[in-house]
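Subject: sequence -> structure tokens, single chain

Hey, anyone have a minute? Need the predicted structure for the following. Not urgent.
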Amino acid sequence: MTDIILNGACGRMGRAIAEASASADVRIVAGVDPFGKANGIPTEFPLYASLDEVTECADVLIDFTVHTSTPDLVRFAERTGTPMVIATTGHTPEELEALHGLSSSCAILHSGNMSLGVHLLMTLCRQASAVLGGKADIEIIEKHHNKKLDAPSGTALMIAHAIREALPEETEVVYDRTGRRAVRPRDEIGISAIRGGNIVGEHEVLFCCGDEIVSIKHTAIGRSLFAQGALRAAEFLKGKLSGLFTMEDLLRDALEKPTAKV
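Reply:
Had a minute. Here:
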């Protein structure tokens, strides 16, 4: 059994994780959500307005809030030594540096997307880039609901980074072409962000090569897959004392076990 503190307990993903925990070998011992606390939203676990108020001990903290919570998370980890699964996006360089520094004394798994399918997509994109690199115009199209705060998504940036690692030459990531009137150069990756309705999440990568297009796409139908991935990440992180991990480490660990289930 893995005991969890859930930061952002009353948000969309917080509620999804609480629901998914009922069928997993985990237990939420405390939740944190200032909005939920202020509005008296009922939960099946103690609910606090801030991490400073939490007195329960846990094996792992899961954070599904916003990147500006980073200072609070760092203070909490320094005080308690609790490993953390951080699933937020949009971090500033300073916030990322703080998490990197913290990882020397506390275990952290940080990923902009908790879906195992998305990380499979990234693997396929690396392979396609190795074969088609230098010959294809590469475009990433990401779609999310109208409440999402950051654009492009953290997942789109992760995909672009994975592609750049596999390409033979340096490539620029381009978010906006409105101020440019010129033929598209080959050495760039375009990212387009769409925000509308209740789209959970969709990422498509196009490799456009002359008269053919290779499309690799992942669509999230519901939020439960992200919740299940976060709980898997928490179980993976339990007992680790320090280090900075990713979902790729989780996948590698699972595949190395004789009874691996990805």
